[in-house]
Each structure stands twice: as C-alpha cells, then as structure tokens.
Amino acid sequence: MKIRIAPIQYENVTHMVICPENYDPEFLAAMKRIPRAFYRPERKQWIAPKDRRVWQALKDVFGSENIIIERAPAAPSDSGGRLRLALIPEAPDWLSLYLPEELIAEYVATVKNIHGRRWDPERKEWLLPYTLLTIRFLRKYFPGKIDWTFDPATDRPERLPETGTPYAGVKREPPAARYEAAVTALEQCLMLKRYSWRTIKAYKNCFRQFIRHYDDIKPSQLTRKQIDAYVAGLIKEKNISESHQNQILSAIKMFYSEVVDQEWKVQGLLRPKRPDKIPHVLSEYEVVRLLNAVDNLKHKCILMLVYSAGLRLGEVINLQLPDLQAEQKRLFVRGGKGKKDRCTILADRSWQSIQEYLGIYRPVHWLFEGQDGGRYSERSVQAIFTKAKEKSRINPHATVHTLRHSFATHLLEKGVDLRYIQELLGHESSKTTEIYTHITHKGWDKIKSPLDDLKL
Length: 456
Fold this sequence. Notes:
The chain is α+β, with helices and mostly antiparallel strands and about 450 residues long. The chain has helices at about 25-30, 50-60, 105-110, 130-140, 180-190, 195-215, 225-240, 240-260, 285-290, 295-310, 315, 350-360, 380-390, 400-415, 420-425, 430-435, and strands at about 5-10, 15-20, 40, 45-50, 65-70, 85, 95-100, 120, 125-130, 145-150, 325, 330-335, 340-345. It has a five-stranded mixed β-sheet, with helices on one face.
C-alpha cells in the first residue's frame, strides 16, 4: 500500500497529512498503529505530528519504499510574485493553486478560464482538476509564473469523469397526474410522428397540467367546454403568452385527434391572434461590448459563433468537430429547426479563436463539451450570455437568440441579398426573413421629416 505525506500546519505545529495513493480498506487499521495519529472528520484526513517516532512507525507499518513525500509548498508571504501549485494528498485527482493577494487582480480572470476549477473558501485556494487539460492550460497562460511543487504525471486523464456531479442539483420530476397513462400515450404518439425531444417534453408538460386540473375526470370524458374554460382561466389568472396558449392547444388537440380518436372535440379550437412584434437587435457597438465582456475562451467562442454564423441556441451546442469546414470557410449545421441541415459562414475571427480553444481543450466529439465530456447545456450558454449582458450593460431585453437577429440585420444593412440571408438562417419561407427589413436603419439618415420643410 503506497501512501502520500505532505506537511501541514495544525494548531501552530508542523504535522503531516497522510493518505493512501489509492483506496485500500486496510488503511484505517494501519493508521491506528501510528502513534499520536488522529482523524480530522471536517477535512476527511489523517494527520500526525512530524517527529522521529511517528516517522519510524510509518516506515515500519507501510515500508520506506511505499512512502511518497510531497515537497513543502512555499509560504504565502514568500510568494515572490509567483503562483504556487501543489498536489492534494487527500484528493489525488485535484491540485491546489495558491494565488497571492498581490496577483489576484492580474491573474484571477485567467484562472477562472480553467476547465472545472473551483474555489475552496476554507483553504483560500483554487482547486483544479489534475488533468492533462489543466497542465496544458497552466503552461500556456502562466509560463514561468508558477512554482511547481511536484513533477506532473504524463498518464493523467484528459478530463475527470463527472467532475460536476457532487455539486449538481437534484432534478425533480414533475408531479404525476392521476391519469398519467394518458400522458404516456401522448408521448408515444409524438415519438412515432418523430417529433423532436424538445417538442415532446413541452407537449407532455402542457397536457399533464391540463389533465391534473381535472384530476377526477378521465381525459377521454372531458368536454370541449372544459377545454375552453381551462385555457380561458390560464389567460385570466396567469396571463399566459400567445405562444404558450398555442402550445397548450396543440398538445390538447394532438391527444384528442390522434390518441383517443375524438377529433370532433377539438375542431375549430379558438387560436390567439399572433402579435406582430419586431425582435430586439443589438447594434454592432453593443456586440463588441458584449464579446469584450467575456474573459473565458470557451464562452467567448460560443457567443462569437452564435453571432457570426446566425445560429440558434440548440444549434451551437449540437456542433460536432467535423462540422467545422475551415477550408471552405463554412459551418455545417445538422438537424436545425424542422430537422433541416444547412451550411452557414465561418468567420475568420471565429476560426482563429476556435483554433486556440481546440489547442487547449481538445474536445473529443462535441465542439463544446461540458465538464464530464458530454454536450454543453443550453442553460450554461444562457448563463454565459446573461453574465456578459449584465457586465457590458447592453440592451437588458436581449437573449442569446438576439445575436441571431443581430447577425441577419447587420448583413442586411451591409447590402447582402435577402435570399442569401434566408439560406444562412435556414428559413423555409422568405416572409420569415423579411421581418428584418422592418428593423434595419439603413438609409434612415436620408429620410427627412416633413416637419423640417415647414416654414414655421
């Protein structure tokens, strides 16, 4: 059994932290044979005073050849304007990075770029995954600035498996309805029709809430009057939007027309009038401020791609490595809205940033991977945008999709033909793309109000 030993200050006396290199059920019994050794439950570590008697006992119990001694880290006051990186004996998959107070302003933004980093408020240090990705990042962005208290192993994994699991929130399933079997039947129908998982999830939630409202009545026995009363109640009490109302009606109609063969019950459902809204658009200056507010390399690449290629949120996280077609300066978008594939432009500046990102992060399958190697989540992208929006103080109503609207509007203002913009955005109808003609300010400087011509 190999053990790792590192010095530690405990109650102003030098002690040793002792931990096994790998889990061994016999470690506990062995430590009980070490004089004056004790367990700290709050830190989950064994420590013992640093003296000859303890040291001899460690050699007798574990063997000198099985003891790995970690070099003592420099004291914080002796930092000399350098960062200190050390192994954590009790957590062999993590490293501790000490950032001296005088260097916080200069380096903290770069440290926050490290994949999977966490702040330990008790240690007052940054915890970094002990991976090849972390080592590459530190060597590239902190050359000659770090005191390495160990020699990095070359057999470390590229990433730690499920590094975010201990802190991940518990996903709660929505409460089931009394007649949950009806929701299951609707789900099966939608799957057979090959609807997207997003639509299936939305329809299930809408329909489940509907039948839970009438929990004592079988869904097949509900009347048209009860359907209308339910929707009218939501409009009056919760002021639901027109799009949400349409979604609820579509879910209900799908169940009665396709699942229980009661199409007569949902014929001529009253649909809301679509509001003729103009989407929010950022100016080019606001886009610059937004992108400059992002320090994290991966985060900046995501937002740059959304804007420079006119991508939807789901499209950017679905990008795979082969979708980057740099030689043709284009980006392949697979399975966009309506399950349609298309090609859009890959900007030179985006490609430059992506090349730097690929050199450090080295994703395996998805272009943007989460901490466990899976696909990046939509919520994470939304959080990135919200943080950058608040920092840059741009239009507070903007969303990630606003970057797509801005892409189309800016192309139109630069004189790009509407048909090309339609193709880049993946719109099936040109009428959808024509909405941007109502947003662009091109030529406004030549328009003169008739009031200016009056001789007042």
